[in-house]
Amino acid sequence: MTKKLIVIQKKAFEHIVGQEFEHVYYIKNDSDFQFAVSDIYGHLDGEKTDYYEQELNDIHALKNGEYYLETGDFNVTVIIDDAVF
Asked: Is 25's pLDDT higher than 80?
């Protein structure tokens, strides 16, 4: 089954310079998944990966849900659901 993974990056504070974005990934295989996950991990510091261990485990398992990660200047929301075409 194909999964839909949405990554939303929003500024944590108005004075932060940088882009806000929303990317939608359709996960059909490991290659698609690696590309999407690199987007998520690109925002996390090493110490944050321990703090969000459960959320990251659920993301790796492609468990449907909404996951919120505070990453300093930006907050990242990851939404996983079954893709409907």
From this structure: yes
Query: What is the rounded (10 degree) CA torsion for 31, 32, 36, 37?
Result: -40
User: How far is residue 13 CA from its own chain's centroid?
Assistant: 19
Task: Please provide residue 67's backbone torsions phi and psi, each rounded to the nearest 5 degrees.
Answer: -125, 130
Q: What are the distances in angstroms from CA 85 to CA 4, 32, 75?
A: 10, 17, 29
Asked if the model's pLDDT at residue 47 lies above 70, the reply is: no
Pick from 61, 9, 19: nearest CA to 40: 9
Average pLDDT of the segment spanning 47-62: 87
